Amino acid sequence: QVQLVESGGGLVQAGGSLRLSCSASGRAFSTYTIAWFRQAPGKERDFVARITGSTWSSNTYYADSVKGRFTISRDNAKNTVYLQMNSLKPEDTAVYYCAANIRGSTSTQRSLYAHWGQGTQVTVSS
Questions:
Q1: What is the SS3 assignment for 110?
Q2: Exposure string (b/e) for 51-87, b if CB count within 10 Å is 16 or more?
Q3: C-alpha atoms less than 13 angstroms from C-alpha of 9 in its C-beta half-sphere
Q4: Separation CA 107–CA 52 (nearest Å)
Q5: What distance in Å separates the CA atoms of residue 60 and residue 37, rounded to the nearest whole number?
Q6: pLDDT by residue (tens digit) across 70-111?
Q7: Which helix (H) or strand (E) holds 83?
Q8: pLDDT at position 21, please?
Q9: How far apart are CA 96 and CA 98, in angstroms?
Q10: What is the pLDDT of residues 39-72, one digit of tens each?
């Protein structure tokens, strides 16, 4: 059973930065693909970024809306994935979820991620 816990959300002004953390259980963490999704009120849960495990050499991929502003990284020794968010905009306001694909898939499809955290709120004021 894989358990994920997000932290680091909060309120920030436009142009500011936040770093989210996703701590995971699981002995094979280094092989998991971990992704971040976000869901704004009344909207679908959308893909933000993902990082593959060791099988695919920690390959990263981003949604166009965050490319160049967000950076995903991982520390396998700490079983943790980070999402560094810079130049935040009001439209980044959402609940951010981390999710795990334990098969190490490179997919960004929400349905292929079976394990989810509880989410952390990010609010960007204008």
A1: helix
A2: bbbeeeebeebbbeebeeebbbebeeeebbbbbebee
A3: 20
A4: 9
A5: 14
A6: 999 999 999 999 999 999 999 999 999 999 999 989 999 999
A7: strand 80-85
A8: 98
A9: 7
A10: 999 999 999 999 999 887 899 999 999 999 999 9
